[in-house]
Recover the amino acids of this structure.
């Protein structure tokens, strides 16, 4: 396939990653304004997004099977159009039931991206770590600007515009994708990143079980931190801020995490994955413990460290699937990876509502720190069961 077509495909996948995280995190910031406008409590409204985050993981599972029947290109197009339609529904909603239904639909269409996008990305990659690192940056830019962009739109035009403006962007990009993206048949002829085998002391079933546990725990730390950040900054920074300032402060924290993914991508091309895994897990545990114990600047610093570790681990998880899974099974493997990572963690919104009501964000981040400690234990098990490191990918382009 021509190199220009491959670059176009990667560009669309990267932009889709940005949108995927942006659209899912509009609601956690918009809810600050919506609570007053609709006369409903924060805990009640944030719990309405549970369906979206559960669907985000649950609907990832059949994507590998669907890709074999309708094609990855068609599924990614459905992602753009489905998210755009769901955002229009949210922007026109007037009550809790409508919000919950459209959030569920948004989660279902958002679930398309990760298994399909990751599979397409690896198919077109010439350097695994670098490509995954840049893709992670796009996703985190979406996460980062979801808070700032939503706050700006809600402040200037009302909370409904915060949903309707990105809806137009999604629909426009969907049309552009269908016009310019290469067909699946061309992509499948391109040699993908080769798989390799590491020599572990632990048997494969044990390693898969441990990795599954880390994916579930990682999904919880990801969602708890991402969903909680806007309200935690608003509540625990120590002095009042307008919603625009809250949004952009949260954006800064997420951008810090995005830049970390570039560094992690470079490390993936040079060092053993289990070694990187340990460092990132330790960063998450330390940062979330700080955020649980302190408010103000210490909380913000802890959350910045945690976000760096959380988003860096996303790159490592995707690299482990790409490196240790045969090419013909990768789409299905990514479906399972994101099903495990996001289905259980979809209940994070409900957990935040309960934990926040019982003990504020100190308890909320304490729970997240416990999940991070689980990841650290798994990472250490991988590291110390490794007999010899697998060969790192050599950048070729």
């Amino acid at each position: 396939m021509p190199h220009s077509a491959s670059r176009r495909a990667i560009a669309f996948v990267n932009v889709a990653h940005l949108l995927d995280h942006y659209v899912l995190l509009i609601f956690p910031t918009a809810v600050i304004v919506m609570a007053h406008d609709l006369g409903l409590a924060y805990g009640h409204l944030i719990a309405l997004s549970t369906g979206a985050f559960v669907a985000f993981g649950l609907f990832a599972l059949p994507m590998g099977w669907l890709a074999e029947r309708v094609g990855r290109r068609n599924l990614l197009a459905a992602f753009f159009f489905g998210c755009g339609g769901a955002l229009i529904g949210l922007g026109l909603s007037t009550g809790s039931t409508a919000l919950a239904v459209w959030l569920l639909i948004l989660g279902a269409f958002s679930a398309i991206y990760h298994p399909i996008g990751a599979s397409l990305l690896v198919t077109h990659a010439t350097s695994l770590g670098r490509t995954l690192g840049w893709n992670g940056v796009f996703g985190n830019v979406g996460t980062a600007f979801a808070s700032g962009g939503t706050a700006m739109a809600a402040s200037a035009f009302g909370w409904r515009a915060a949903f309707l403006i990105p809806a137009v962007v999604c629909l426009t990009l969907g049309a552009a994708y269908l016009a310019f993206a290469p067909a699946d048949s061309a992509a499948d002829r391109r040699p993908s990143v080769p798989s390799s085998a590491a020599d572990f002391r632990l048997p494969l079933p044990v390693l898969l079980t441990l990795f599954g546990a880390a994916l579930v725990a990682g999904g919880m730390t990801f969602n708890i931190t991402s969903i909680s950040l806007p309200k935690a900054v608003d509540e625990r920074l120590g002095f009042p801020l307008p919603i625009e300032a809250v949004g952009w402060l949260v954006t800064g924290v997420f951008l810090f995490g995005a830049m970390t993914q570039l560094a992690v991508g470079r490390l993936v091309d040079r060092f053993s994955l289990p070694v990187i895994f340990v460092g990132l897990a330790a960063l998450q545990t330390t940062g979330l413990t700080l955020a649980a114990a302190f408010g103000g600047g210490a909380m913000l610093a802890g959350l910045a460290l945690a976000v760096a570790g959380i988003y860096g681990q996303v790159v490592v998880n995707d690299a482990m699937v790409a490196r240790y899974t045969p090419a013909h099974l990768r789409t299905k493997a990514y479906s399972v990876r994101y099903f495990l990572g996001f289905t259980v963690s979809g209940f994070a919104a409900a957990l935040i509502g309960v934990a926040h009501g019982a003990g504020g964000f100190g308890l909320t981040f304490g729970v997240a720190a416990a999940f991070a400690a689980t990841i650290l234990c798994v990472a250490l098990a991988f590291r110390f069961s490794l007999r010899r490191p697998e060969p790192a990918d050599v950048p070729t382009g």
In short: The beta strands are 199-200, 386-388. Residues 3-388 form a domain with the Growth Hormone; Chain: A; fold (CATH 1.20.1250.20). The first strand starts at residue 199 and ends at 200. Confidence is low (pLDDT under 50) at residues 186-191, 392-397.
